[in-house]
Design goal:
Elements (H helix, E strand, L loop, with lengths): L12 E4 L7 H8 L4 E4 L2 H5 L2 H11 L4 E4 L8 H13 L4 E6 L1 H16 L8 E2 L9 E5 L11 E6 L4 E6 L7 E4 L9 H20 L5 H23 L4 H20 L4 H13 L3 H16 L4 H10 L9 H18 L15 H10 L12 H13 L2
Parallel strand pairs: 1-9, 2-3, 2-4, 4-6, 5-8, 6-9
Antiparallel strand pairs: 7-8
Helix pairs in contact: 4-5, 6-7, 6-8, 6-10, 7-8, 9-10, 9-13, 10-12, 10-14, 11-12, 13-14
Bound molecules: fe (ii) ion (FE2).
Length: 387
């Protein structure tokens, strides 16, 4: 018997807007917690982003330990090292500061501290029994949606695969999107993470589990990103563009956390696991080719996407609108200087392994069209050849 209700997943609290990090101490007071483990990376320490948050904690007399060894596509070894710092420091809650990688590790550490065991055993959907430690998830990129979602991704360095954990026990206690932490983000990172947000919204909108709540969020996310992503890349200090991208990425995150993703993410995870390729870049490259593949089964959905991208569709057929949306995404990636797959270490000899792994990825089940092994291989090769 199928359920006739939906459960919604979201952080307990959210703050979005300039200066909102200053409100963190009152949420810590409400938690009655003693000491935070801050999970971040050396880059964010170096540019002073972590200091902006620790200044707020210092002024409020809130103690913390810092673990800053998160790397892109973080591995189980990184999670283990962060967990050891948490235990040694006797920390009882976690503050993640970063884009997807630090927030993914922050979630994993909180889950392990309460549930024990190895992070590998939690791959899949809702594999834990208890909520993780309270998590304050401070986003510094406008892309991954990690501060809002019940998902995290950890790389299994032995198998060279990315493990996706979908677990409502890792949802943040407090999610923060403060544009002041994003003003210094370099153009290439703004572009890649922005394309990740657009991919979240488009996959959430066309996936099998989409429903009116996620539809509304996804379409508005696409509209806002198409309006402001280029400006955020070109004028990093533009607060309005950065704020629009905060909303776009938050809504896209909320959309896919409640509906699902699809083939773009299933395939992009393999490029990340195999070649350490930045997640947003892999998504941006694959997105138009997967849209082409999916459009056969949900053309009307792509017409709606074309409309919110600002394409004038009134004199177009559904096919033309859908194709125009696909061309728009290709053109956007080009304008944002997303590098081609051929320059990122992709080797056509690996395509069968990559495709087999993509067919095993948790994200695939929600894709609107079921691909064969040959379909996936063709999409990788079309993206590689830029067809
Ligand atoms: Fe993503």
């Amino acid at each position: 018997m199928s359920n006739n209700y939906r459960e919604l997943f979201q952080p307990a609290h959210t703050l979005i807007g300039m200066g909102c990090i200053n409100e963190i101490p009152r949420y810590i007071d409400a938690l009655n917690a003693n000491k935070a483990l801050i999970v971040s990376d050396t880059g964010l320490v170096k540019v002073g982003t972590v200091k902006k948050v620790t200044d707020v904690l210092d002024n409020a007399g809130k103690p913390y330990e810092i673990f800053d060894e998160v790397v892109p596509n973080p591995t189980t070894a990184v999670v283990k090292a962060a967990s050891e710092t948490l235990q040694k420091g006797k920390c009882d809650y976690v503050i993640g500061i970063g884009g997807g990688s630090p927030l993914d590790v922050a979630k994993a550490v909180g889950i392990l501290a309460v549930n024990g065991g190895e992070i590998r055993s939690y791959e899949g959907v809702n594999k834990t029994n208890k909520p993780g430690l309270p998590l304050i998830a401070i986003n510094t990129t406008a892309g991954t949606g990690s501060e809002v979602t019940r998902d995290y991704v950890i790389t299994d360095e032995e198998k060279k695969i990315k493990m996706l954990m979908v677990d409502s026990n890792c949802l943040a206690y407090l999610a923060i999107d403060d544009p002041q932490l994003m003003l210094d983000m370099p153009p290439h990172l703004t572009a890649a993470t922005g394309m990740d947000a657009i991919t979240h919204a488009i996959e959430a909108y066309v996936c099998k589990s989409s429903f009116p709540y996620s539809d509304g969020l996804a379409l508005e996310a696409v509209r806002l990103a198409s309006k402001s992503l280029k400006r955020a890349v070109q004028e990093g200090n533009n607060v309005d563009a950065r704020t629009d991208m905060c909303w776009a990425e938050y809504m896209a995150g909320l959309a896919f956390s409640n509906s699902g993703l699809g083939l773009v993410h299933a395939m992009a995870h393999q490029l990340g696991g195999f070649y350490n390729m930045p997640h947003g870049v892999a998504n941006a490259i694959l997105l138009p080719y997967v849209m082409e593949f999916n459009s056969l089964v949900c053309k009307e959905r792509f017409v709606q996407i074309a409309k919110v991208l600002g394409i004038k569709t009134h004199n177009m057929t559904a096919d033309q609108s859908s194709n125009a949306a696909i061309e728009y995404i290709k053109e956007l990636s080009y304008e944002l200087n997303i590098p081609p797959l051929s320059s990122l270490g992709f080797n056509p000899c690996d395509v069968i392994t990559l495709s087999l792994n993509a067919l095993d990825d948790t994200c695939l089940s929600d894709n609107p069209r079921t691909p064969s092994l040959v379909d996936v291989q063709n999409i990788y090769m079309n993206a590689f050849e830029g067809k």
